[in-house]
């Protein structure tokens, strides 16, 4: 089951472009939303009549509000805490992974560098998506 709407929160325009293109290659009907930091994402999600995503992909290192702060906020908001959050970060540091898990991340993806790697990683994550949850949470390191 593929998600209908995904939100990608990342301050890097190149990473946003790769995510956008990779998602479109998998299924061009998936609606893609973008935010450049955690605060911008929370404002987007709290708007009246906001289209809530089925999955959120969240970078850790961002200005204004980083990914861990955003994750903590997401998991404390009743209307948003059910949305699976996939950390998508360049950090392979175990401490970051453990902290994200403690904060409620559903999945940890070490950020792929190429369109092919991103497409493969997204296909894997989407294959784990089942309604409003991720089956078998685990870490994926893009090859």
From TrEMBL:
Looking at the keywords, is Membrane present? no
Cite the Pfam families for this sequence: Response_reg
Stretches assigned to the Response regulatory domain: 5-126
Is Phosphoprotein among the key words of this record?
yes
Please give the InterPro entries that the UniProt record associates with this protein: CheY-like_superfamily, Sig_transdc_resp-reg_receiver, TCS_response_regulator
Q: Where is the signal peptide?
A: none
Task: Recite the UniProt keywords alphabetically.
Answer: Phosphoprotein
For the modification 4-aspartylphosphate, which residues carry it?
A: 59
Gene Ontology biological process terms in this record = phosphorelay signal transduction system
The protein's superkingdom reads Bacteria
Among PANTHER family, the record links this protein to: RESPONSE REGULATOR RCP1-RELATED
Name of the protein described by the UniProt record: Response regulatory domain-containing protein
Organism per entry: Flavisolibacter tropicus
Task: List the taxonomic lineage.
Answer: Bacteria, Pseudomonadati, Bacteroidota, Chitinophagia, Chitinophagales
């Amino acid at each position: 089951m593929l998600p209908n709407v995904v939100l990608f929160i990342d301050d890097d325009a190149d990473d946003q472009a790769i995510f956008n293109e990779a998602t479109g290659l998998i299924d061009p009907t998936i609606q893609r939303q973008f935010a450049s930091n955690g605060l911008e994402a929370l404002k987007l999600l709290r708007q009246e009549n906001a289209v809530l995503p089925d999955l959120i992909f969240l970078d850790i290192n961002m200005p204004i509000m980083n990914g861990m702060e955003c994750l903590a906020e997401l998991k404390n908001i009743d209307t948003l805490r059910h949305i699976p959050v996939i950390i998508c970060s360049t950090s392979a540091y175990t401490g970051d992974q453990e902290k994200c898990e403690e904060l409620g991340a559903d999945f940890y993806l070490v950020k792929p560098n190429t369109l092919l790697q991103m497409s493969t990683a997204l296909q894997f994550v989407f294959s784990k998506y089942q309604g409003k949850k991720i089956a078998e949470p685990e870490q994926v390191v893009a090859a």
